[in-house]
Amino acid sequence: MTTPPVLILPGLGDSGPAHWQSIWEASGPSFRRVVQRDWDHPQLAEWVATLQQHVAACETPPVLVAHSLACSLVAHWSREFGQHARGALLVSPSDVESPSHTPPEVRGFSPVPNMRFPFPSTVVASTDDPYVDIGRAEHFAQCWGSRFVVIPGAGHINAESGLGAWPEGMALLQELLRGNQDK
């Protein structure tokens, strides 16, 4: 059996070379980054269209691996196209509705859709993420019908968190790829 495609979805500013998303992308051909035209001035409609183009180019439904702003992207995309995904790993969903947590560049992604996804998903959040309160991250997980996983003291779960290849996250992705993820 072939491995389903995995689409890497970075958030605002993209994910640099030390970010676990970039490390995963370099690990094999099934990992593909969705490259947005403008990482610093995101436009919701454009980002959704770009994601859908990448999903449509996949030979089988992909698993989406979103970080930060891209978690909201997946929520918006899923309203129209969610039936085309196998699953999603949503890491550190930034609270685009909160001016105290996120910059003005992301306001165009609000309000965050609070609907159950038509595919299995896991939301991973840290207890000290500066871009979302843990209670808000749990709210997203509940609305989206996602399994909720908490990592104590991991910040924004990015390169600065010192996770390297983040094997614990890869284990969560493997559960989604196998289709035996628990909620």
From TrEMBL:
Q: What keywords tag this UniProt record? A: Hydrolase
* The keyword Hydrolase is annotated on this UniProt entry: yes
The record ties this protein, via InterPro entries, to: AB_hydrolase_fold (IPR029058), RBBP9/YdeN (IPR010662)
Q: What's this protein's name?
A: Alpha/beta hydrolase
UniProt cross-references to Pfam families, sorted A to Z: Ser_hydrolase
Single GO molecular function: hydrolase activity
- The source organism is Dechloromonas hankyongensis
